[in-house]
Amino acid sequence: MKRDAVTGGGCLVSAAGVVGAVWLWGASDRTQRHLGNEFENNGQDFGAVLTELPFVFLAGAVVPAAVWGLGVWLLGRRRRSEPSADSQLHA
Description:
This protein is mainly alpha-helical.
């Protein structure tokens, strides 16, 4: 695989992870309760947004990118450790 394709794939996985993590966090009952989805906005707490959203955003970006990088690294090691047909012919 070319390095540009690997980098682009990692960025796409990271962006999808951010969108998915923020969407799941926003759709959860706990978050909806903090954002005031109760009667007349009782229990509205924007402190939860300010403290949790940055962590959700970072986790959504870092975890998929780390898994992608680990997979690419493992596949790269596997390909380098297998002897190629060319090296056997020249020996």
